[in-house]
Design goal:
This protein starts with a helix and ends in a 5-residue tail after the last helix. It has five helices and no strands. It has one domain. It is mainly alpha-helical and 188 residues long.
Length: 188
C-alpha cells in the first residue's frame, strides 16, 4: 500500500467518525456531540480533533494523489487552476467572513449571541456553504480522485450539521430564532 492509500484510508476513517458523531446527535439528541455542550467536554475535544485530522488528511491526500482524477486533461491545467483557485479562495473568504460575524465562541459551536446580520442575512449557514465551496475548489486544484472522495464524505457533515444545530438554536433563542429561521433560507 502506497503513502496516498494509507493517508486516504486513515482520513476516511476519521471523516466517517466525524459523520457518525453528527449522526449520533441526530438519532440520540440527549447525546449531543454537536454543538458541543461546552469547551471542556469530551464532545468538543472529539469533534475538533477529528475535524483537524480530517482537514490535514484532505490536504495531504490531495497532494499525494494529485492528478489522478484527470480533470486537467479535460479542462486543461489553466482551467483547473482558475476554477479551483476561484472556488478555494471564494469559499475560504465566505467561511472566514461568516466566522468573523459569529465570533470565536460561535465559530467553535459554543453558545454565543444569535447572529442574523452580515452573511447570515442571506443564509443561515454561510460558513458551512463556504466550507463546501472551498473543498470543491481544493479537489479541483489537486485534481485528486482520493481528495474528491474524502471531500464528499466531509460534505455529509456540513450538510447535516444544520439539522443538529437547529433544535439547539431553537432552545437557546426561542422566538427570535424561529422568526429568523422562517425569514432566511438554510443555504441560499
Amino acid at each position: 500500500m502506497d503513502a496516498a492509500a494509507i493517508v486516504f484510508w486513515a482520513t476516511m476513517a476519521v471523516t466517517v467518525g466525524l459523520d457518525l458523531s453528527l449522526l449520533a446527535t441526530l438519532v440520540v439528541p440527549s447525546l449531543r456531540v454537536w454543538p458541543p455542550p461546552g469547551r471542556r467536554t469530551w464532545q468538543y475535544r472529539l469533534v475538533w480533533t477529528l475535524f483537524l485530522l480530517a482537514t490535514i488528511g484532505l490536504v495531504v491526500v490531495g497532494g499525494l494523489d494529485a492528478g489522478s482524477l484527470g480533470l486537467r486533461r479535460w479542462m486543461g491545467e489553466a482551467g483547473t487552476l482558475i476554477l479551483g483557485s476561484t472556488l478555494l479562495v471564494g469559499g475560504t473568504t465566505l467561511a472566514s467572513y461568516a466566522m468573523g460575524f459569529l465570533g470565536l465562541r460561535g465559530a467553535l459551536g459554543l453558545e454565543s449571541d444569535l447572529v442574523t446580520d452580515g452573511p447570515f442575512a442571506v443564509s443561515r449557514n454561510p460558513g458551512y456553504l463556504g466550507d463546501l465551496i472551498l473543498m470543491a475548489g481544493y479537489m479541483l486544484l489537486s485534481d485528486s480522485r482520493l481528495a474528491g472522495i474524502v471531500a464528499a464524505a466531509a460534505a455529509i457533515w456540513f450538510l447535516l450539521a444544520p439539522l443538529a444545530e437547529e433544535p439547539w438554536l431553537d432552545d437557546r433563542y426561542g422566538e427570535a430564532y424561529r422568526r429568523y429561521k422562517q425569514a432566511h433560507p438554510r443555504w441560499l
